[in-house]
Amino acid sequence: MKKYITILVINMIILGFVILSSSTSRNTLTQKSANHQQSDTDSLRYKEEKHLRNLRQLTFGGDNAEAYFSFDNQKIVFQSNYKMWGLECDQIFYFDLKDGDMRNKKPQMISTSKGRTTCSYFLPDNQSIIYASTHKGGDACPPVPNRNTGKYLWAIHDDYDIFVADLNGKIKKQLTKTKGYDAEATVSPKGDKIVFTSTRSGDLELWVMNIDGSKPKQITKDLGYDGGAFFSPDGSKIVFRASRPKTPEEIKEYKDLLKDGLVQPTNMEIFVCNADGSDLRQVTNLGKANWAPFFTPDGKKILFSSNHASKRGFQFNIYMINLDGTGLEQITYDGVFDSFPMFSYDGKKLIFSSNRNNNGTRDTNLFIADWVD
């Protein structure tokens, strides 16, 4: 999954796609965005965003991503690299939504502040979370991929393992201990299973384990990066992003990068399967990067982030699509970046990351809105 963020960013992250444009171009985009926003009190929402209402901003600086609700819909857990909070790379935080926003307050850090973290998620008790961290491999933030290669790359750090911590940051349990990358974990709404991405079989595959970390089972096997997985509301299906190198050149490049702990996430599509890996099928065939999928509350559609319609490559918006790949609909309209959508468990709220309202900076912030069918 990472699972991102900035943190998509996100971070994404994980978080990786965010944002390669210059400060000047961002200022231009921000001004264009402002011209398209509504003039009413819902001023952060673009007029085309008909599925969103009462949109409000939660964070105000840094890269903030992969924000996910607690089972009781009262809290969120997310990752951030906000330097004003003393961070050098992504760490995990939680925030109680009754406190409004984080404009003038630092949320509670859950991670150790050592290493790099990604992909946090609440457990059913609403008092503990899972997240991936490299801290057992060293206190320092691991290096980021070289940006001078002409390729956009994500690092797949072998030191990532998945941990359970309480809301005070005390680690209660380590769920994965195998050699290699274990991260991008999310929890079934049924509260019984965890899906995550691992290299333990030699490729980036999806695995499912019990909520206590027992009985891990591999559920994907095709060559390519399988990650960012989420369960459907009834726990019966899993949606995820995947790359599928086909030509000898693509396969060689993918394998060579993976040996170096890297992936190039610029060509991914959305897939869905049953929770045991059966009935695997491709949902999108849009080209470019399609990722950060999440089921709608009725389980019949999927939200995801995509740059398939972007001429610049770095502009991502959130779309909605039926499970059979029909009915594609654009949901968000920011001029730079929208991603990491998640619905509250009651289906009433949507939280996501966006570059809107960042005053021309590269900040990626969290936004929450009422969802309108």
Automatic annotation (TrEMBL):
InterPro entries: 6-blade_b-propeller_TolB-like (IPR011042), WD40 (IPR011659). The chain crosses the membrane at residues 5-23. It holds the Pfam family PD40. Keywords: Membrane, Transmembrane, Transmembrane helix. Belongs to the TolB family. This is WD40-like Beta Propeller Repeat. It comes from Thermoflexibacter ruber.
